[in-house]
Amino acid sequence: MAAVSAGTVSKALNGGGQLRAETRQRVLEAARQLGFQPNTLARSLLRGRTYTVGLLTSDSFGRFSIPLMQGIEDALGAGQLAVFLCDARGDAVREQHYLRTLLSRRVDGIIVTGRRADTRAPLSQDPLPVVYAYTKSAAPEDLSVVPDDVQGGRLATEHLLAAGRRHLAHVTGPTRFEAVLERANGMRAALAAAGLEVARDHVLTGSWSEAWGREAATELLDGDRHIDGIFCGSDQIARGVADALRERGVRVPEDIALVGYDNWEVIAAATRPPLTTVDMNLEGLGQAAADHLLAMIGGMRASGIVRLPCRLVIRSSSGVSSLRDWPASGTPPA
Amino acid sequence: MAAVSAGTVSKALNGGGQLRAETRQRVLEAARQLGFQPNTLARSLLRGRTYTVGLLTSDSFGRFSIPLMQGIEDALGAGQLAVFLCDARGDAVREQHYLRTLLSRRVDGIIVTGRRADTRAPLSQDPLPVVYAYTKSAAPEDLSVVPDDVQGGRLATEHLLAAGRRHLAHVTGPTRFEAVLERANGMRAALAAAGLEVARDHVLTGSWSEAWGREAATELLDGDRHIDGIFCGSDQIARGVADALRERGVRVPEDIALVGYDNWEVIAAATRPPLTTVDMNLEGLGQAAADHLLAMIGGMRASGIVRLPCRLVIRSSSGVSSLRDWPASGTPPA
DNA sequence: GTGAAAGCGCTAACAG
DNA sequence: CTGTTAGCGCTTTCAC
Lengths: 334, 334
What we know:
Two copies of one chain form a homodimer. Chain A is of the alpha/beta class. Chain A folds into three domains: 6-38, no CATH class; 48-147 and 282-310, Response regulator (Rossmann fold, 3-Layer(aba) Sandwich); 149-275, 3-Layer(aba) Sandwich (Rossmann fold). Helices cover 40% and strands 18% of the residues of chain A. Chain A is built from eleven helices and 14 strands. In chain A, strands 2-1-3-5-7-13 form a six-stranded parallel sheet, sandwiched between helices. A six-stranded mixed sheet of chain A has the order 9-8-10-11-12-14, with helices on both faces. The A-B interface holds A 37-42, 44-45, 50, 55, 60-63, 65-66, 69-70, 73, 77, 80, 82-87, 98, 100-101, 103-106, 209-211, 236, 239-240, 266-267, 270 and B 37-42, 44-45, 50, 55, 60-63, 65-66, 69-70, 73, 77, 80, 82-87, 100-101, 103-106, 209-211, 236, 239-240, 266-267, 270. Chain A binds a DNA duplex through helix 1 and helix 3.
């Protein structure tokens, strides 16, 4: 239509080569009129790069995957990379199937995500850049990006200490989750730094549910323990605790200050009073993972475990009003 | 390696052509040893089909998108189709950008999803199969798959009627959502069928939040209304209502039976008492949308609005114990 | 039965 | 400056 050869069109559209401006205009105009979209497949075939990455969830897409995916999409979409979605549902066979699919589609790299930040078996796919996000690869030569749950636990505890609380309890989830241990360790570290420690019967482990939160709160009140602050391993637990306390006539935060974990908006904001809680900044984590992957695709080698800091979101359950510890518009330090 | 030509390899791997069994074996063995994965791009280039579809969320991936995506992935993954993820964040410019990307990548079709089942502008992309899932295209020649919210409202109401309740109220979300109107219409229809109607001051519209549920419950109790059943437009609202009722000494379900909407497990199951609620079966909806898309890719023409039935999930808030209205293992009628 | 050749849509290198 | 050629990895005729 522009009466030029295919090669010339290519140069015109990609801004390359030596072309007369008039010719370039003519081609561009024709392309516009025809609604011409260059065929990415052909280009990929030639270049050996697809500008596509695979997103492989080992567990189903859940609440944690959403912000993570947004962050990943953000970081990759800006770089014009497309994302292939693969939900293995925790099934190794499905995962293997998806892995083959991604390889045959020649993705430039893969991001593997989990439901909890626990350790998992590596993909063992030598020639391809892989980043593990919100899950840790058991292989030390892999790169994993996870939230720093020790720091998160510390953050929550320091906040309670800053609020003048000295008799803290911890109500958390099942000990088989690494996060449970790490958050508790963070708590202990913060207490130790203040010359305090947490009594053995002030740490209650159970499930991640509200029901467990209510049960644990009851147990804490029934014993003869003096408690003025509770750090909960999740917002769901914290909500259960808050409900049980209120129904027993214990005031939050006046009598007992409360800090949750996850910043699950729909839970944390609806709790009475709204929960101060630790935010793992999963969107930032997704972005960081994607950025690392891009670097690896670019030839950079990287391995080990990158821990990203959590931040505290302050609402009223902790009785301290102050700004968030970093500005909402800012990004967490990488 | 198998000492045959590329053409022969192709026939061997794809099971086509006339080959000696021994040759085929030799090729297969060599492919296995080499870990050979045929390059899907090259194949797509040739066939003119990519076995890939785009998933375009107009709103961010949220709670409703998860089951939807699972259903879509299920239906497509089984057919060996891959899914490109595009999150337009409700931004028309981003959406346009993604649309171009998908076209240049030559997807076989597109599924457009929304956050609420409301009407949206069509993609106006003539030559490509498109299905709208959990959102309705304004163009009648497009195909949209949405939950039947009128039927959902009817289901909830009939259940309350079956529980012997006759004085029903409705606490729901903002009237700008089509679902709010449709669910209310379903309620009215069910009541009319029983020779009843709902008083104007028994329908309270507000936001989708727990706080609104609490506020509305208080309002209902403070007025001099006799109410023995409340149908709530969402589980969050229902939870707020349940909390407020309990705190006012009203027993659920003995004094007032409660039915929610969404079957948002984490809310519905944690409510005291656990909520009977309407499930829109979004996973099934995703599957149906994907199946329709496959049919369209296969050459079938289809248009209009497909409404999929909701089902009732019975817990204790409605005071009726019975089986779900269809077996958990079954699939909803398409 | 198997190999050789052409071509999917594009771009890079080289001619002209 | 622009056109021609070759080739990315695969499948599909068509000879042999």
